[in-house]
Amino acid sequence: MEKFRAMLDLHLKHHRALGYGLVTLLTAGGERLFSAVVFQCPCTATWNLPYGLVFLLVPALALFLLGYVLSARTWRLLTGCCAPGARPRCGSGLRRVWVCAELSAAAALPPLTWVAVALLGGAFYECAASGSASLARYLCSGRDPDCAAQLPLVPCGKAKASDMQELLQELRAQSQVVGWILIAVVIVFLVIFTSVSRCLSPVSFLQLKFWKIYLEQEQKILESQATEHATELAKENVKCFFECSHPKEYNTPSSKDWQQISSLYTFNPKNQYYSILHQYVNRKEKSHSIKSSEGDTVIPALGFVDSSGIINSPDL
C-alpha cells in the first residue's frame, strides 16, 4: 500500500513530464511498428518519393493536430469565440497569437519525435530520396550510367549494379545525420525556451510551485462542487417532473459568470491572482465584469494557468 501511495504521489507531482514521456515512447513505438509491418516501398521512380514523404510527414501532421485537440487550453481559447459579441472575452489578437504559439510548441513534440525516430530508422527517407531526380543526379555523379535508373530499386535490394549497396548506406547515413540534427535542435530549443520563460517569470521558484499546487486543488474542488451542484439540480428537476410541482430556487452561475471564468488568464503585478476564477471572485463590485487593465500581460512561464479547468481534456 505504501509503494502504491508513493507511486501515486510521484505521478501527481510529475504528471506533465510523465505524460510527455509516455507520448514520446508511444510515438516512437508506433513509428517502429509502421516501419516494420505497414511500410513497403514500391521501388518505382514514380511512387518512391510521394510514398516515402507520406509515411514521414502525414502521421506527423496528424499527431500535431491531435496535440491541439487534446489540449484543454485550445478549447478554452476557441469555445464561444465565434458567437456574437464574443470578441472582448476572447482577448486581443496579439494575445490569441501568443497563446496559439505556445499551443503549437507543445503540440509539436509528438510529430517531431515521429520524424526524428523515422529518420534514425532510415526506411522512409531511403524510399523517398531514391525517387528524387535531383538527389539522383547528386548521388550518381561519377558512377555507372545506369545508376539513376537503378536507384529506385535500391531500398528493395533489387538493383543490379555492384555499387548500389554503397548508395543505400549513404542514404541511410544521410537520414540518420538529419535525424540527430533534428533531435539536437529540438533539445536546444526546449532548453532555451524553458530558460527564457523561467527568467521572465514574475514570481519566485517556490511561489511558482505553490501556484501549481493551488491550481490543482482549485480544479479538484471546482469539479467536486460542480458535480454536487449539478446532481442536486438534476434530482430536483426530475422530482418536480414526476410530482408535477414547482422546483425550489437554486443559485446557479449565469452564462455571463461562466464566460468570465472561461476567459484567458493575464498576470497583473498589482493584483497577483492565481487563476481567472480567483480574479473573478475578488473583483471589487459584483456587477462588474473582468476587464483588461493596465499592467495585464501574458507571460510564457504562467501558461499552465489556462490549462486548468473542470476537466483536463475536452469531450469530443
TrEMBL record:
In the record, biological process GO terms are: ATP export; monoatomic ion transmembrane transport
The record's listing under Pfam families reads: Ca_hom_mod
Swiss-Prot/TrEMBL keywords = Ion channel, Ion transport, Membrane, Transmembrane, Transmembrane helix, Transport
Q: Does the keyword Transmembrane helix apply?
A: yes
- State its location(s): Membrane
Entry superkingdom = Eukaryota
Q: Does the keyword RNA-binding apply?
A: no
Residue spans crossing the bilayer: 50-70, 177-196
Membrane topology note: Multi-pass membrane protein
Q: Which GO terms describe its cellular component?
A: membrane
Q: What InterPro entries does the record tag this protein with?
A: CALHM
Family assignment from sequence similarity: Belongs to the CALHM family.
Listed name of the protein: Calcium homeostasis modulator protein 6 isoform 1
Q: Which organism is it from?
A: Daubentonia madagascariensis (Aye-aye)
Upper lineage is: Eukaryota, Metazoa, Chordata, Craniata, Vertebrata
